[in-house]
């Protein structure tokens, strides 16, 4: 009866995972959902009040508990040495330059991030310990084990994949020694093949482009670059400037020195249009995405050379670049590409927990994936029980009525908040915490942006499509269970679903099957029966700048204060 609690303890995107005695993921959720604080920077993943409830729900009183986290022992010890040397004090930070350095972030900012990372490692597990005291008056904890950051990425991504053998490429902003690594998955076991060393970081590069284009990487606005890029054109001068930031020799990716980085950034800023802070800079977004692809191609070629395989697993924050992900299959010898639902640092909560479980159980093998993304909290419908006393527009339907009734509302042009079952683990709403709409009206995107999401008009909305029909709608169709890649719509169908066809004729699709999500599949099937279209528009149930909702109260508040026309939570329906 040994349970494992995994903690993602970077300075951004903290998360918690609970693994059962057999290695099953019982619960996994990013801290931002519980706190309703976007990306939850510098927040602990395991606050004691939060842990008390989770422990009572998922772990028996007398069970043994092990704790695992996602930054290695050697690196954590190095951070301890830096702290003892005074490197993280305010006085030490004041002495550093606020200018960009070779890492493509300001020198002071980089040190402050590392200081925050150190603080997170210092407090890792304290909330679990205090939560056990609160829940049971005792803490049967065997200790805390630390695992490499990129190893944790690889463990979660590979062991949640459908593969027994694959090449694995991890690319993010920073790790213990560098910002990328290559692993081999061999008969279910992981082997590190190459760990890049140095400060070269494609993740920090993309963050710099985000800032230069008029957005803010600290707010997690890298997504806007991907959405805006198709509206831009390739500018030879911008491409030449961005290419000064890096060089590729063979498979080695190197970045320029600090003075070159500063000069390039200054020259790009001098060219930035005056309205970029309001509208973004489409041409830079396009060029930035294209250069990102050039750098990623170098790493993919290296991974293919070192671990020849038809299967590729992608992990790390850069694996969230869905525009690039959809272009990988069929190149470098990779026929099939898998990206998990939470490839960024939140996924390391599962990765670290699985590594600890595997260490304690050497014969354990992860069950064949893809892993279900529906691992988070449920939403209580108790508020509706109270509301029905005064809200006459609220009614509870029979379970088999929900799909056809909701589908009919969609055909009438209603914007619907849709909340079912357990929350998705990762940044995408996959039909359990979604706002849904009819994709056929050409103005549906503009209406949804204006009435509900309150976000920039250029940002696209995603299609959820019945997997059994997807090959008829997308060119070179690939299964996409987690909305992790964009594919090109077939030309003949684009005018049938204009609200989910992006400027470059792509869509960041979610392949929906009855096995993965029975109720969501039933909803789209009912819509298909009414319209002949096996697609609905799907976007996350939030407004710009806020995380996806966490409670029924969050959903109810957004229903009454936005342009949503209907709210469906489990079997409850509320219509304006």
TrEMBL record:
This is Carbamoyltransferase. CDD domains: ASKHA_NBD_NodU_CmcH-like_N (cd24033). SUPFAM superfamilies: Actin-like ATPase domain. InterPro entries: ATPase_NBD, Carbam_trans_C, Carbam_trans_C_sf, Carbtransf_dom, NodU/CmcH_Carbamoyltrnsfr. Belongs to the NodU/CmcH family. Gene3D superfamilies: 3.30.420.40, Carbamoyltransferase, C-terminal domain. It comes from Bosea robiniae. Residues 407-576 form the Carbamoyltransferase C-terminal domain. Residues 140-353 form the Carbamoyltransferase domain.
């Amino acid at each position: 009866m040994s349970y494992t609690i995994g903690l993602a303890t970077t300075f951004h995107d903290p998360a918690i995972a609970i693994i059962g005695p057999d290695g099953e993921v019982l619960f996994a959720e990013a801290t931002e959902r519980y706190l309703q604080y976007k990306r939850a920077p510098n927040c602990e993943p395991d606050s004691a009040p939060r842990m008390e409830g989770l422990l009572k729900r998922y772990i028996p009183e007398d069970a043994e508990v092990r704790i695992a986290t996602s930054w290695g022992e050697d690196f954590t010890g190095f951070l301890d040495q830096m702290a003892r040397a005074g490197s993280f004090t305010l006085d030490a930070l004041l002495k550093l330059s606020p200018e960009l350095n070779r890492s493509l972030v300001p020198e002071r900012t980089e040190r402050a991030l590392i200081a925050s990372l150190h603080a997170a490692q210092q407090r890792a597990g304290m909330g679990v310990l205090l939560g056990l005291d609160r829940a049971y008056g005792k803490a049967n904890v065997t200790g805390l084990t630390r695992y490499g950051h990129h190893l944790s990425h690889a463990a979660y991504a590979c062991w949640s994949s459908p593969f027994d053998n694959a090449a694995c490429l991890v690319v993010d902003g920073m790790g213990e020694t560098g910002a990328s690594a290559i692993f081999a998955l061999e008969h279910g076991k992981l082997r590190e093949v190459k760990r890049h060393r140095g400060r070269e970081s494609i993740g920090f590069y993309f963050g710099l482009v985000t800032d230069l284009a008029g957005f803010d990487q600290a707010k997690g606005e890298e997504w806007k670059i991907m959405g805006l890029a198709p509206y831009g054109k390739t500018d030879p001068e911008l491409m030449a400037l961005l290419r000064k930031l890096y060089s590729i020799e063979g498979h080695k990716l190197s970045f320029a020195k600090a003075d070159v980085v500063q000069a390039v950034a200054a020259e790009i800023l001098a060219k930035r249009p005056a309205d970029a802070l309001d509208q973004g800079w489409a041409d830079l977004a396009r060029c930035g995405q294209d250069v990102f692809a050039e750098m990623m191609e170098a790493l993919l070629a290296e991974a293919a050379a070192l671990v020849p395989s038809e299967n590729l697993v992608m992990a790390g924050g850069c694996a969230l670049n869905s525009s690039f992900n959809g272009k990988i299959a069929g190149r470098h010898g990779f026929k099939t590409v898998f990206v998990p639902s939470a490839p960024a640092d939140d996924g390391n909560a599962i990765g670290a927990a699985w590594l600890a479980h595997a260490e304690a159980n050497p014969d354990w093998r992860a069950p064949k994936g893809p892993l279900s993304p529906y691992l988070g909290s449920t939403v209580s419908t108790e508020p509706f029980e109270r509301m029905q006393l005064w809200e006459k527009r609220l009614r509870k339907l029979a379970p088999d009525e929900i799909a056809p009734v909701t589908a009919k509302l969609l055909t009438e042009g209603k914007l619907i908040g849709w909340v079912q079952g357990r929350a998705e683990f990762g940044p995408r709403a996959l039909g359990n915490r979604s706002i849904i709409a009819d994709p056929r009206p050409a103005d549906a995107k503009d209406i949804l942006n204006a009435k509900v999401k309150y976000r920039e008009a250029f940002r696209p909305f995603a299609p959820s499509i019945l997997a059994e029909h997807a090959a008829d709608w997308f060119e070179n169709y690939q299964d996409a269970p987690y909305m992790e890649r964009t594919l090109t719509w077939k030309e003949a169908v684009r005018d049938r679903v204009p609200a989910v066809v992006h400027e470059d004729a792509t869509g960041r699709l979610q392949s929906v099957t009855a096995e993965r999500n029975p109720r969501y599949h039933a909803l789209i099937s009912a819509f298909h029966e009414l319209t002949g279209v096996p697609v609905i528009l799907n976007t996350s149930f939030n407004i710009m700048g806020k995380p996806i909702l966490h409670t029924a109260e969050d959903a109810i508040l957004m229903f009454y204060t936005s342009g949503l026309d209907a709210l469906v939570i489990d079997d409850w329906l509320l219509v304006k």
